[in-house]
Amino acid sequence: MKKIILKYLWLTYGFLFILIMTPLLQYVGYIKIDPNQTIVNIILVLVWGTFCSFLIKALLYHKKEPLFYLILTIWLLSLFGFVLAKYLSSTILATTALFAFAATNCFLLWSWYMQSYMGRRAKAFFRARRIFIRKLVLAVLLFVTMITVDDYMKVPDNPITFVLLTLFWLTVVNMLAPKFFKKYRLLIFGIYGSLLIFFTVFISYFEERTHSESLDLFLTFLFPIPLFIILWLYEQWKWFKNLKAEKTKAELSLLKQQVNPHFFFNTLNNLYGLAKQKSDKTPDLILKLSEVMRYVIYKGKESLVPLEDEIEYLENYIEIQEIRQHKKPDIDFKKSIDQHNYHIPPLLFIILLENAFKHGVDTLVDKAYVHIELIVKENKAIFTITNNYDPAGFTTQKGIGLLNLKKRLDIIYGSNYLLQIDHENAIFTARLELEVD
Hints:
Elements: H1 2-7, H2 9-28, H3 38-61, H4 66-88, H5 91-117, H6 122-128, H7 130-153, H8 159-176, H9 178-183, H10 185-205, H11 211-219, H12 224-257, H13 262-276, H14 282-298, E1 305-306, H15 307-324, E2 330-337, E3 343-344, H16 349-358, E4 369-377, E5 380-388, H17 400-413, E6 417-424, E7 427-435
Parallel strand pairs: 2-4
Antiparallel strand pairs: 1-3, 4-5, 5-7, 6-7
Helix pairs in contact: 2-3, 3-5, 4-5, 5-7, 7-8, 8-10, 12-17, 13-14, 14-15
């Protein structure tokens, strides 16, 4: 029982604080309590008692730190400032005391939350955000100075007050959107500098003004806000568009890197066998393999490559497959191209060609064939590949290669392409139609 009481002692301190402060604030005239509103008074005591209890709990959490004594000092000074401001009828002193009290409590609760539940110390956080804190301090100083000047000078439409008010809100904007403010700072300062000059000149020549004219004069400072909102929305849209483009680029890069390694593993195994047999085909296979790997590594990173380079890559791949096969398959590659300056995204056709060998030629002992046709005419490419396969080992489930290809086509072409896959009577046919530049 004693442990429970000690654990929740902060609640007692909070409500005790309210019971002491309520008569004091009532005595100096800051609050008024209607004895007839019993329910309202109970609710207010519960709300403010709970709030003050959490403040006490946050303060006690820091009791072994110098911050504990600093917070207590500011609380006492704020309380003294409230009472003094009431007797001196000083709005400036009351506002300063209120602001100091509110800011201190916000920091206290935030520091307690960060250390208790987030495991981060407030000092480290502030060190990492020095620039933001400086801007915040500047905004506070501008706000307090503005109230002080306005209260002391008592000049209607005081230009100094307007300058300080404008600087205050510009500082707030700089805190909330620093990148936007930095990019458009010349435009912002130019517009509001011009408005402040216009405001000063106007009130100098028209000293006698109606309330409506003064209000219209103040509203001129609000006119640029829609412009800056539109600019900010445009920047957000541009940022989102760039982010989406970067995401697409990253996805394409990742998909390109997922070229089926099955071909390289098999080729290296065949290369090992040929090397052991001291075959004359070994140097040719090494050369072709290096050319294929060079294309994948270097050309594969580009968004577009010449169509001739892509065809040469396919031909090198076919030659490697012919070398590594024990029985030479029937391979026919027909090309019909109306001109020679087309460009195409790399490594699109190779996936269909790889599948023809992996799921077709490699599964057959005899009479394997792969027939390829590439027709390019009027900025349209049609790539068709037909091969036979062993029905016993065939599966209708799409492999990673085809899923990879479809994702890349969706990213690059959207819906402006056609990919048809058919298999019937142990014959597999793939047809890809797309635009080329």
